[in-house]
Specification:
The chain is of the alpha+beta class and about 170 residues long. About 15% of the residues lie in helices and about 40% in strands. The chain has a single domain, classed as Electron Transport, Fmn-binding Protein, Chain A (Pnp Oxidase, Chain A, Roll), CATH 2.30.110.
């Protein structure tokens, strides 16, 4: 047991999907790399994202009330790194990084073309959590295509490689 650890060391042992979070409001748009994302509920289908209140995406999501979770694939690691190294209030990451988008069906946030999956979400609640805000989003549309997602574990990117079994599909006790 260790009681001497950094926040990144503690949270790094929980694998998480790597997503390109998109948002838009008042003619402005942003994309940022996020790995603090999780499913919350099956009925209704809810997800949670955790953002620093100083981020440009935080501001846009507060204004618009929606966001899109674009699940990144292995061929997008370079894009994930570039997006994560720039601040959206200072540069237009879509133009500067040549990000191709398509219009979402139910939210104003754009969708990143080429992602294995994307979730369109409407904010239904927010909660302060430490130095972050947790946005709870109701999934109002799902987009899927061929391809696998990437995950972050202990600071490294991974892709699924071996199916070890099927998760319990029945009702929980």
């Amino acid at each position: 047991m260790s009681t001497d650890f950094t926040p990144r060391q503690a949270l790094g042992v929980i694998d998480s999907p790597v997503v390109l979070l998109t948002s838009a409001a008042d003619g402005m748009r942003n994309v940022m790399t996020v790995n603090m994302v999780m499913g919350v509920s099956f009925n209704p289908v809810l997800v949670a994202i955790s953002l620093n209140p100083g981020s440009f995406s935080h501001e846009l999501i507060e204004r618009s009330g929606d966001f899109a979770i674009n699940v990144a694939g292995p061929d997008q690691i370079s894009l994930v790194e570039r997006v994560g190294s720039a601040h959206g209030a200072e540069v237009d990451k879509f133009d500067d990084f040549g990000i191709v988008t398509k219009a979402a069906e139910r939210v104003v946030a754009p969708l990143v073309d080429g992602c294995p999956a994307a979730l369109e979400c409407r904010v239904i609640d927010t909660h302060p959590a430490g130095e972050h805000t947790v946005f709870i989003g109701h999934v109002v549309a799902l987009h899927r295509r061929e391809g696998l997602p990437i995950f972050l574990y202990r600071g490294d990117y991974y892709e699924p490689g071996n199916k070890l079994g099927t998760f319990f599909k029945g009702e929980a006790a």
